[in-house]
Design brief:
Keywords: Membrane, Transmembrane, Transmembrane helix
Radius of gyration: 19 Å
Number of strands: 0
Order of helices and strands: HHHHHHHHH
Distance between the termini: 22 Å
Protein name: ABC transporter
Number of helices: 9
Structural class: mainly alpha
Length: 211
């Protein structure tokens, strides 16, 4: 993979949308720093979940590319371009999550491994949804509609999921460990779905090769 490709893809990444989600997420995680009151693990978990959702909403714009239908066919396949975009944002996401965790006092911080799994799964779902939109629609900027769908899903899921499939359990709940096995399944499924949708459709591949 050439550095020219990385630079070219980096220029098309909607960094403002990603940064907006990151800033909102940090503001949410940092609320205890500016508000007085008792902070416990329950509130800490709620704040980190909200922060992870805010960052994921920014990630729904990652695959937006207004020039998708305007540029000439290129030899670089879609999965490569998508992979570069994701690779560019992964270290940013890791640094952002570290900062979000550090904003919470230690006594109010939920188990880091478990809540990190939740955040990773939420981000993966956002990226998978964006990949699905790119694969099955002609919209060059599916981010807004994908973000709206993800936000709706996040608001409804805690109320619609049956108890046996609950994901949003509290720290200390007997179902905490089992719920995070479900989060691992969500993460794996989202990664597989995103990878499958990153592959260029056969029709598009044939037309690109013919050009």
């Amino acid at each position: 993979m050439s550095s020219a490709l990385v630079v070219a893809v980096a220029r098309t990444v909607p960094w403002r949308a990603v940064a907006a989600g990151a800033v909102v997420g940090l503001l949410v995680a940092g609320l205890p720093r500016v508000l007085s009151g008792t902070l416990d693990a329950w509130l800490g978990l709620a704040l980190l979940r909200a922060a992870a959702l805010a960052f994921a909403l920014g990630l729904t714009f990652l695959l937006d590319d207004p020039a998708r239908e305007l540029t000439l066919p290129v030899p670089t396949r879609r999965w490569v371009r998508t992979g570069v975009r994701v690779a560019l944002v992964v270290p940013v996401a890791a640094l952002w999550w570290t900062a979000a965790l550090s904003l919470l006092p230690a006594h109010a911080r939920p188990p880091v491994g478990a809540v990190t799994l939740e955040a990773a799964a939420t981000a993966a779902v956002a990226l998978a949804a964006a990949a699905v939109a790119v694969r099955f629609t002609d919209e060059p900027r599916p981010g807004p509609s994908v973000a709206a769908g993800l936000l709706t899903l996040a608001l409804l899921a805690p109320h619609l999921l049956p108890t046996r499939c609950d994901l949003f359990v509290l720290v200390g709940d007997p179902g905490w460990a089992v719920a995070h096995l479900r989060w691992a399944v969500v993460l794996a499924g989202a990664v597989l779905l995103g990878a499958a949708c990153a592959v260029e459709p056969l029709r598009g591949l044939r037309s690109r090769l013919a050009s």
